[in-house]
């Protein structure tokens, strides 16, 4: 089964590369990215480690990214394969489309997502989308956002809703991003509500009441090289009046060519 899974993945990558070459723009921008993250807990849990490698390319219709994710949690290791696409539909309108799959229980067996973004007057932007995660059961996540560009700042409010199976849970995140050029930035995110997490076993996915804050930075350290760093703090209620504190660290580097 695992060999068949890997074989099908590479068939898909080859087909994607063929389509990409057919629709490639005259000028392309390629990016290879490597990232790693670590989550530490103040009680009861070993560290969670994750890493990823991806390759992306800009085309005449938008951009596409192929990614391999690796996770180490609960004494297990697992991999997930993903494809992201950002097709332009018309001036001021574009989409985010995601598909992912894994045959290891640290990740959903399949995941799907789509979101449409629309530019609005006076530098506003809005989006509406969904995500679906298929474990032994499935989870649907409905999401939407409103953003505003103002000078060197970008403000984003995102709302998430997980109906029915996890008790109609919801969360809200507010992000403020300060740009220092076209792409260099520092951002702060504050969030609250019920968000998805894992407890006990790798397939035990639940919605936890949490409050979180994180800071992320993204800077060109030399031409064609970009460094990203992140730090997050989260307080999660795992049972009535029982909390765990999570600290997250992340780092990534992009090479453009």
Brief sketch in words of this structure:
It contains one helix and 14 strands, in the order αββββββββββββββ. The chain is mainly beta and 257 residues long. The chain has a single domain, classed as Porin.
CATH class group: Mainly Beta
User: How would you characterize the largest beta sheet?
Assistant: 14 strands, antiparallel, barrel
Give the N-terminus to C-terminus distance in angstroms: 36 Å
CATH superfamily: monomeric porin ompg
Looking at the overall shape, the CATH architecture is Beta Barrel
How would you characterize this protein structure?
A 14-stranded antiparallel barrel has the order 1-2-3-4-5-6-7-8-9-10-11-12-13-14. The chain starts with a helix and ends with a strand. 9% of the residues lie in helices and 69% in strands. Mean pLDDT is 87; it is low at 1-7. It has one domain: Porin, CATH 2.40.160. The chain is mainly beta. It has one helix and 14 strands, in the order αββββββββββββββ.
Search tags:
single chain; Porin; 1 helix; disordered N terminus; 257 residues; mainly beta; 14 strands; 14-stranded antiparallel beta barrel; globular; 69% strand
List the helices and strands and how they pair.
Layout: H1 2-23, E1 30-41, E2 48-59, E3 62-73, E4 76-90, E5 93-101, E6 110-120, E7 124-134, E8 138-150, E9 153-162, E10 169-179, E11 185-198, E12 205-222, E13 225-239, E14 242-256
Antiparallel strand pairs: 1-2, 1-14, 2-3, 3-4, 4-5, 5-6, 6-7, 7-8, 8-9, 9-10, 10-11, 11-12, 12-13, 13-14
